[in-house]
Automatic annotation (TrEMBL):
Keywords: Methyltransferase, Porphyrin biosynthesis, S-adenosyl-L-methionine, Transferase. PANTHER family: S-ADENOSYL-L-METHIONINE-DEPENDENT UROPORPHYRINOGEN III METHYLTRANSFERASE, CHLOROPLASTIC (PTHR45790:SF3), SIROHEME SYNTHASE-RELATED (PTHR45790). Residues 121-333 form the Tetrapyrrole methylase domain. CDD domains: SUMT (cd11642). NCBIfam families: cobA_cysG_Cterm (TIGR01469), PRK06136.1 (NF004790). One of its GO terms (biological process) is methylation. Belongs to the precorrin methyltransferase family. It holds the Pfam family TP_methylase. This is uroporphyrinogen-III C-methyltransferase. It comes from the Eukaryota. GO terms for molecular function: uroporphyrin-III C-methyltransferase activity. InterPro entries: 4pyrrol_Mease, 4pyrrol_Methylase_sf, 4pyrrole_Mease_sub1, 4pyrrole_Mease_sub2, CobA/CysG_C, Siro_Cobalamin_biosynth, Uropor_MeTrfase_CS.
Length: 373
């Protein structure tokens, strides 16, 4: 319940108007647009994932936005105001949902003295984007949940598998915009679990591979909430398999290393591990590494990894919108820029990349490589 107290300033439904201050210090009224982060334009090349501007997000979450219209969609420059507007609109409905869940548990005889036993929280990995890569267990849990909190990299095709009675709440993060802080996500999970709800936390890939699932699990377990983890196919495995890239291969790669392109403030900068990562007999997979790749590539080559090392960058892997750039390490960053790849993009570096049937080399060259093993 801590989140509801922390955000007490947002406990009532917002006014249809907000105030602004002009240059001459006169206060004026302007229309309030709680769904102003919605992008009204869509195209066949739009992201399959639940971006903050996703029309599908608001259609699936309309229980939170049912008093608003989607006829006008101005996009404000202040992303902080988007987040505050969203929270202001969501909190009253979240409170109502908590009360409904409590009454439901009481009517089922599961509560005593007004106190309900805690519900379960499931951390569910949804894989790299293709809904057919979900596990049967993940689908079963998704269909039985009371509330699902889902990330940006959970595809809309996956959300279509959620049970009709479940409520969906977007808690995704993207560069420059966090719809919820990590601490608020923790408190939401705790509040609904304490109300006896079955809560599912949907994460792209695997929840325990760069998914902050360990942090959420640790927080909830310290509060006495049972947490169950349902693994998902992490992007490295799913996307490599899609491209026919063996992450390990006898005689070529004896190990594989997953590396994040970003680090928590105060943590180890991924660029400083380049010395240990520059192993010609290993495969390096970089998550969330678009912005740091130019520096990382230079440091890998500085630490003796060949500039001719095969590499690939895959945007939106396993989805119909998948785009791929193949290049030698020395040219990869430039080719990514030329192709205009955007997040989410996975980067695979190592000699195994050349074994992909999509690698732009002749069959004769590939045959020579295999015979050399």
């Amino acid at each position: 319940m801590a989140l509801l107290h922390k955000l007490a300033s947002f406990t009532s439904l917002p006014s249809p108007f907000t105030t602004t201050t002009t240059n001459n210090n006169h206060r004026s009224l302007k229309p309030y647009h709680p769904i102003s982060s919605l992008n009204c334009t869509t195209s066949s090349t739009s992201s399959p994932f639940t971006e903050k501007h996703s029309t599908e997000r608001y259609q699936r979450d309309q229980w939170l936005y049912n008093n608003q219209t989607m006829s006008s969609c101005p996009v404000p420059s202040d992303s902080g105001s988007i987040r505050e507007d969203d929270i202001a609109l969501q909190l009253p409905e979240l409170k109502k949902l908590l009360q409904v869940l409590k009454l439901k548990r009481e009517s089922e005889g599961k509560c005593s003295g007004g106190k309900c036993p805690p519900g379960n929280v499931y951390l569910v990995g949804t894989g790299p984007g293709d809904p057919e890569l979900l596990t049967l267990k993940a689908v079963r849990v998704m269909k039985s949940a009371d509330l699902l909190l889902y990330d940006r990299l959970v595809s809309n095709d996956v959300l279509d598998l959620v049970g009709p009675d479940a409520k969906l709440l977007y808690v995704g993060k993207t560069a420059g915009y966090h719809s919820r802080t990590q601490e608020e996500i923790h408190e939401l999970l705790l509040s609904f679990a304490e109300a006896g709800a079955t809560v599912v936390r949907l994460k792209g890939g695997d929840p325990l591979v760069f998914g902050r699932g360990g942090e959420e699990m640790d927080f909830l377990q310290q509060q006495g909430i049972q947490v169950k983890v349902i693994p998902g196919i992490t992007a490295a495995s799913g996307i490599a398999a899609e491209l026919g890239i063996p992450l390990t291969h006898r005689g070529i790669s004896i190990s594989v290393r997953f590396l994040t392109g970003h680090s928590r403030k105060g943590g180890s900068d991924p660029l400083f591990v380049a010395e240990n990562a520059a192993d010609p007999d290993s495969t390096l997979v970089v998550y969330m590494g678009l912005s740091t790749l130019p520096s990382l590539a230079q440091k890998l080559m500085h630490h003796s990894l060949s500039p001719q090392t095969p590499a690939a960058a895959i945007e939106r892997g396993t989805t119909p919108q998948q785009r791929i750039v193949f290049a030698e390490l020395k040219d990869l960053a430039e080719k990514i820029t030329s192709a205009g790849l955007v997040s989410p993009t996975l980067i695979i570096i190592g000699k195994v990349v050349k074994l992909s049937p999509f690698w732009p080399v002749s069959t004769k060259e590939k045959s020579c490589l295999m015979q050399a093993l």
